[in-house]
Automatic annotation (TrEMBL):
Protein name: Uroporphyrinogen-III C-methyltransferase
GO biological process: methylation; siroheme biosynthetic process
InterPro entries: 4pyrrol_Mease, 4pyrrol_Methylase_sf, 4pyrrole_Mease_sub1, 4pyrrole_Mease_sub2, CobA/CysG_C, Siro_Cobalamin_biosynth, Uropor_MeTrfase_CS
Broad enzyme group: transferase
Organism: Staphylococcus capitis
Gene3D superfamilies, alphabetized: Cobalt-precorrin-4 Transmethylase, Domain 1, Methyltransferase, Cobalt-precorrin-4 Transmethylase, Domain 2
EC number: 2.1.1.107
Amino acid sequence: MGKVFLVGAGPGDPDLLTIKGLKAIKKADVILYDRLINKEILEFASPSTKFFYCGKDPNKHSLPQEETNKMMVTLAKKGHTVTRLKGGDPFVFGRGGEEAEVLANHNIPFEIVPGITSGIAAPAYAGIPVTHRDFSSSVAFVTAVNKPGMDKEQYWEHLANGPETLCVYMGVKRLPEICDLLTKHGRSSETPVALVHMGTSIRQKTITGTLGNIVDKAHQITNPAMIIIGDVVHMREKINWFVEQADVNKLSIPKVTSK
């Protein structure tokens, strides 16, 4: 019997991969990796390592989750050390819990290696702390993709009147609806909003606005992107430290790149 490592590969910057994640990559016989993995980290693998792409590309045919689960089980039962690489953290909207459950059902040894989720890292690279003693003492990590049977109105009403900071995953295509629902249920249209595209990478781009006007500004932002909603977005004006592509072209200074 082999073993499976469910590894969070971080949000994009290869330097944000954890040491334990790096060890799991180096010891793997087989690596199954997702779409948002920075390919640079695959170079840490052994020359003999086999790679399988398990990404789910938007609007394209992709490997079903069931096939990924089956592949992990089959490879582990053949005695392989399998590293399942997932963007961000495997347990934060990464379906890592489902994959771990499948492995447990087949009595396959596994380990969970947490990673830095984009809900924290993308705002940080954009100069936005998700909590701040002057602006926010609570934060929620939420998805714009509601599960079947969920009352959408009730879901967004709760969020409109709940945590002070919202970090929304997978929400760019639904941005107009998100803004409408939050303002409908009590959030001020003047609430600050930031969209961070390709957070922590050299392709990062950030735009800011409010619930009332961000939709008009967001036409250049595509997935993958994080949406940050709350007064903490104001902090970007003071602590924006990461030089983004748009700023490089404007200011003619060297880009920040990973080692």
